[in-house]
């Protein structure tokens, strides 16, 4: 029983994938509403099942391991999965590829689980690949659009490139250590040229996936070209899960090289924050805007990561949870507006508060959360990252973070200004609200307002990180 | 529930009441009654505090309470008050009531407007009562976005530009503050945000220097300290009346209070060593603000620049580090808060009727609207420091306190500050002469009606505040005396007074 419980995330997911196959054989997916609602219910059950109690442990000579923190991370991913499925309801309803969407998304999540639970670099690598390849297919969903195909190609090429670099780093590491299980790497890692090179290459691989500057070049184009649901998935699930893994890789795997990576991480952190915010200044496309905003946000996450301690991982996990809710809410509103106006331009948000106060308020809360304005949860998330970062004593980094807080506020306020202050010449009619999207937005809204005040959440994360 | 938390619970309840209210009339009355309750609560807390003190309570801050917030990070919602925070709370409560009264006629998005005003008041109360630096910072930041929206949506003139400038500059200030308090958190050894705990620790002077500059500058941005004052004239003049009252009356005081309570009090050694920097910036602000005011034709810009000058006195008083100067700074904060609120309120009333704020286009207001004209004159006279009004008492105290610092540098700064009074007299009297006295220049103005009941009540309330401080300053000094003494005792070694 214990084993079943331990593998329950993977087992449930496999069952879900199987269920989708059976549904497709039966032609169930042609019954659109019924199919989508069933999927949402199944994903809700999947999310609830994640909270069953479970024992910690490892299997297959450490290839697979699990503990409280990993379970929490998987649960956060599950929450994101459910919310994304809800927010993309309207799009899936008229898309031909709803079945494939779920199939590929769940496949990617399976890779994420493998990656999160891995206790061996080989598994880690497999998981990372498994989670990326389906996304490349997903970003190509608008088959008739050129930019969508371009997005797919860009994603697959850049991910292949980053994988190559990472594999090279892994092989160097193998040469230095002689074994790729986490335990033996931790035990045998000594700072020397070979391991430093290995680290640098592996870092580059991760940097691609998290779109850290200077490895961010694919991000904006892919975000813009993909359907909104896929962009949402990319920015939240794909990025969030890699951040989780990155924590483990840095803190335990390369913990011995801390002196070396501290400097490297701070430099890319400063670059990401600054470049992300500066490029976001001039974006008029909502998805490109959020792409650069997500680059800047990752820069902030890296500030927290430099703490290399309990408080560092607690604040990062906490932030990712908040970031997930904020981004899903923002993309939800963008998809609602884009569905009715047919435009993804930020200009189409002008005067939104007059015509659609509900969407405007949700968007404002999401943007304030991203900007780190109280009393929205993002405020706490960002400040805890900075608090953690202060621990490492990198004052220059904090100075840049402070400047970037101001810059990012300008970016997000620009959109708020469009919605609340500016008038729209073309009057925007009240948008249709479907139940699924509204539910998801309410969940995000409640989460974003409550997370700062329901402190057991932070305490729980903190207690999981102290092992 | 302890009594201090009620200060935060009431605005929240009022704000929620506003959200569920359907009719604009209900919204207005909810906001007003909520803020009046708040005023009475503030008076009640003060009375309670005084009775505790009289009964022999010796703790530095009283009515302490603490709730867990983010315990692993040492963030507790801790509240306590001393005399200084109490006078700030009283001032806030008065200005909020008055602000709601003068906004009675606002017709655009009434619910949102009053909700944001209530949010602002919540942030001010929270800031003044919390003793945990992180929580203080939370409340400091809480007010930035409501200000942005108030100016952007309800403002006039170059509102987009002003609102954005204000939000960005205040965010910049708070980023400095945050890095500063992070420093305090990590360098005290005990890793605590509680400022009473930090006050007991010994922080090495090298660290103090950096943190003092960061914190004083950060809070200084909120006080419109030179050279970070540029948000104030634009922001104040573009904001709707109630928001200007709040911005100049309360928001700038958050900065002053922070400079005193956090930067100066917690880092006494650095304050002794480096306060000359802020004496220089304060002197520049005082003189520059006064001359800039003289050049203004727009009444709101005039008052905004004069606020820069008057808040210079606050910084000067704090940076001089003598007991009288610090007392004067606290009095000036309260006095300026009330006085400038009255000033903005009367300008707003005139603007509502005449639709212009240019001093030379107005004229004869006293004849046509005796009440509003008088309110304008009272605030003007208070601003130029006429005896009997609060401005005189507080500015005098700052001057006397500054004069106590011997040395050519301090004397020059004091003399410069005193000289600004003359300039102030020029611009105030000129404005009063142009706008208020004389004959009615424009036939249109003959149709104007005098103040409504709500405007009258607001002006009376604020005038009462000005007169109480002006005529019975001992009440005020009695309330804050012990606390300024305890703050100043940390510098006595150097300053000698």
UniProtKB/TrEMBL annotation, chain A:
It is found in: Cell membrane; Endomembrane system; Membrane. Residues 118-407 form the NADH:quinone oxidoreductase/Mrp antiporter transmembrane domain. It comes from the Bacteria. One of its GO terms (cellular component) is endomembrane system. One of its GO terms (biological process) is ATP synthesis coupled electron transport. It catalyses: a quinone + NADH + 5 H(+)(in) = a quinol + NAD(+) + 4 H(+)(out). The chain crosses the membrane at residues 6-25, 34-52, 72-92, 99-116, 122-143, 155-176, 196-218, 230-254, 260-280, 289-311, 317-338, 358-380, 392-413, 440-461. Its EC number is 7.1.1.-. It is an enzyme of class 7 (translocase). It is a multi-pass membrane protein. Keywords: Cell membrane, Membrane, NAD, Quinone, Translocase, Transmembrane, Transmembrane helix, Transport. One of its GO terms (molecular function) is quinone binding. NCBIfam families: NDH_I_N. NDH-1 shuttles electrons from NADH, via FMN and iron-sulfur (Fe-S) centers, to quinones in the respiratory chain. The immediate electron acceptor for the enzyme in this species is believed to be a menaquinone. Couples the redox reaction to proton translocation (for every two electrons transferred, four hydrogen ions are translocated across the cytoplasmic membrane), and thus conserves the redox energy in a proton gradient. Belongs to the complex I subunit 2 family. NDH-1 is composed of 14 different subunits. Subunits NuoA, H, J, K, L, M, N constitute the membrane sector of the complex. This is NADH-quinone oxidoreductase subunit N. It comes from Paludibacter jiangxiensis. The lineage of its organism: Bacteria, Pseudomonadati, Bacteroidota, Bacteroidia, Bacteroidales.
UniProtKB/TrEMBL annotation, chain B:
Residues 130-414 form the NADH:quinone oxidoreductase/Mrp antiporter transmembrane domain. GO terms for cellular component: endomembrane system; membrane. It holds the Pfam family Proton_antipo_M. Keywords: Membrane, Transmembrane, Transmembrane helix. It is a multi-pass membrane protein. GO terms for biological process: ATP synthesis coupled electron transport; electron transport coupled proton transport. The keyword Chloroplast does not apply. The chain crosses the membrane at residues 6-22, 29-49, 69-102, 114-140, 166-189, 210-228, 274-292, 333-351, 371-389, 409-437, 458-480. It comes from the Bacteria. NCBIfam families: NDH_I_M. Belongs to the complex I subunit 4 family. PANTHER family: NADH-UBIQUINONE OXIDOREDUCTASE CHAIN 4, PROTON-TRANSLOCATING NADH-QUINONE OXIDOREDUCTASE, CHAIN M. This is NADH-quinone oxidoreductase subunit M. It comes from Paludibacter jiangxiensis.
């Amino acid at each position: 029983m214990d084993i079943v419980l331990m593998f329950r995330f993977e087992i449930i997911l496999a069952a879900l994938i199987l269920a989708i196959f059976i549904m497709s054989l039966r032609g169930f997916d042609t019954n659109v509403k019924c199919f989508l609602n069933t999927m949402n219910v199944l994903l809700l059950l999947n999310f609830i099942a994640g909270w069953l109690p479970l024992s910690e442990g490892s299997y297959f000579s450490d290839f697979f391991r699990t503990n409280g923190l990993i379970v929490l991370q998987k649960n956060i991913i599950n929450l994101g999965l459910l919310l994304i499925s809800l927010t993309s309801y309207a799009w899936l309803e008229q898309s031909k590829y709803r079945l494939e969407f779920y199939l590929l998304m769940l496949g990617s999540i399976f890779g994420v689980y493998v990656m999160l639970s891995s206790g061996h670099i080989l598994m880690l690598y497999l998981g990372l690949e498994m989670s990326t390849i389906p996304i490349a297919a997903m970003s190509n969903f608008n088959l008739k659009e050129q930019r969508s195909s371009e997005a797919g190609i860009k994603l697959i090429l850049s991910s292949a490139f980053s994988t190559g670099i990472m594999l090279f780093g892994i092989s160097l590491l193998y040469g230095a250590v002689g074994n790729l299980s986490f335990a033996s790497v931790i035990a045998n890692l000594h700072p020397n040229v070979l391991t430093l090179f290995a680290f640098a290459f592996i870092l580059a691989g991760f940097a691609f996936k998290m779109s850290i500057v200077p490895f961010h070049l694919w991000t904006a184009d892919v975000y813009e070209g993909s359907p909104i649901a896929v962009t949402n998935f990319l920015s939240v699930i794909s990025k969030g899960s890699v951040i989780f893994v990155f924590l483990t890789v840095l803190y335990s795997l390369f913990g011995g090289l801390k002196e070396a990576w501290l400097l490297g991480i701070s430099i890319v952190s400063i670059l990401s924050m600054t470049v992300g915010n500066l490029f976001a200044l001039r974006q008029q496309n909502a998805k490109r805007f959020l792409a650069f905003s997500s680059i800047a946000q990752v820069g902030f996450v890296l500030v927290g990561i430099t703490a290399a301690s309990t408080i560092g991982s607690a604040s990062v996990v906490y932030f990712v949870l908040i970031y997930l809710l904020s981004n899903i809410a923002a993309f939800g509103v963008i998809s609602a507006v884009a569905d009715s106006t047919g435009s993804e331009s930020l200009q189409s948000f002008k005067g939104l508060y007059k015509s659609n106060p509900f969407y405007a308020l949700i968007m404002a809360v999401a943007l304030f959360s991203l900007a780190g304005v109280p009393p929205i949860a993002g405020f706490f998330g960002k400040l805890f990252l900075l608090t953690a970062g202060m621990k490492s004593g990198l004052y220059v980094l904090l100075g840049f973070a402070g400047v970037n807080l101001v810059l990012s506020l300008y970016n997000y306020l620009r959109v708020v200004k469009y919605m609340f202050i500016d008038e729209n010449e073309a009057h925007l009619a009240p948008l249709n609200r479907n139940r699924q999207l509204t539910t998801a937005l309410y969940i995000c809204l409640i989460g974003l307002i409550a997370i700062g005040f329901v402190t057991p959440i932070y305490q729980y994360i903190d207690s999981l990180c102290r092992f | 529930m302890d009594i201090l938390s009620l200060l935060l619970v009431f605005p929240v309840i009022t704000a929620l009441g506003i959200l569920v209210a359907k009719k604009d009339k209900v919204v207005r009355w909810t906001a007003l009654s909520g803020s009046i309750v708040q005023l009475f609560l503030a008076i009640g807390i003060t009375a309670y505090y005084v009775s505790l003190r009289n009964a022999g309570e010796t703790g530095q801050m009283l009515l302490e309470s603490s709730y867990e917030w983010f315990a692993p990070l040492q963030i507790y919602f801790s509240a306590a008050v001393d005399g200084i925070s109490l006078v700030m709370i009283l001032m806030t409560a008065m200005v909020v009531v008055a602000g709601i009264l003068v906004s009675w006629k606002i017709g655009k998005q009434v619910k949102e407007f009053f909700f944001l005003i209530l949010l602002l008041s919540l942030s001010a109360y929270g800031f003044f009562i919390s003793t945990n630096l992180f929580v203080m910072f939370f409340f400091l930041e809480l007010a930035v976005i409501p200000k942005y929206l108030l100016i952007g949506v309800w403002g006039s003139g170059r509102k987009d530009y002003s609102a954005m400038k204000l939000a960005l500059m205040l965010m910049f200030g708070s980023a400095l503050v945050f890095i500063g308090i992070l420093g305090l958190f990590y360098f005290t050894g005990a890793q605590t945000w509680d400022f009473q705990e930090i006050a007991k620790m010994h922080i090495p002077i090298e660290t103090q220097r950096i943190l003092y500059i960061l914190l004083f500058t950060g809070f200084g941005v909120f006080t419109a300290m030179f050279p970070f004052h540029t948000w104030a004239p634009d922001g104040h003049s573009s904001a709707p009346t109630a928001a200007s009252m709040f911005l100049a009356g309360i928001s700038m005081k958050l900065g002053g209070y922070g400079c005193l309570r956090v930067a100066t009090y917690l880092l006494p050694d650095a304050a002794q060593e480096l306060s000359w920097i802020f004496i220089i910036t304060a002197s520049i602000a005082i003189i520059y603000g006064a001359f800039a005011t003289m050049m203004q034709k727009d009444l709101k810009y005039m008052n905004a620049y004069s606020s820069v000058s008057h808040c210079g006195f606050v910084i000067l008083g704090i940076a001089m580090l003598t007991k009288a100067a610090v007392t004067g700074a606290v009095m000036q904060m309260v006095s300026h808060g009330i006085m400038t609120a009255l000033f903005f309120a009367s300008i707003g009333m005139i603007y509502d009727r005449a639709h212009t704020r240019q001093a030379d286009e107005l004229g004869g207001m006293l004849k046509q609207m005796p009440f509003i004209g008088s309110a304008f004159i009272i605030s003007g006279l208070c601003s130029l420091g006429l005896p009997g009004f609060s401005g005189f008492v507080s500015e005098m105290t700052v001057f006397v306190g500054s004069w106590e610092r011997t040395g050519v540098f301090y004397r020059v700064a004091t003399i410069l500050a005193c000289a600004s009074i003359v300039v102030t007299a020029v611009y105030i009297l000129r404005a009063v002469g142009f706008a208020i006295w004389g004959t009615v220049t424009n036939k249109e103005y003959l149709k104007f009606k005098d103040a409504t009941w709500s405007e009258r009540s607001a002006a009376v309330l604020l005038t009462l505040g000005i007169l109480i401080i002006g005529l019975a300053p001992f009440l005020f000094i009695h309330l804050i005396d012990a606390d300024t003494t305890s703050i100043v005792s940390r510098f006595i070694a150097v300053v000698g007074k």
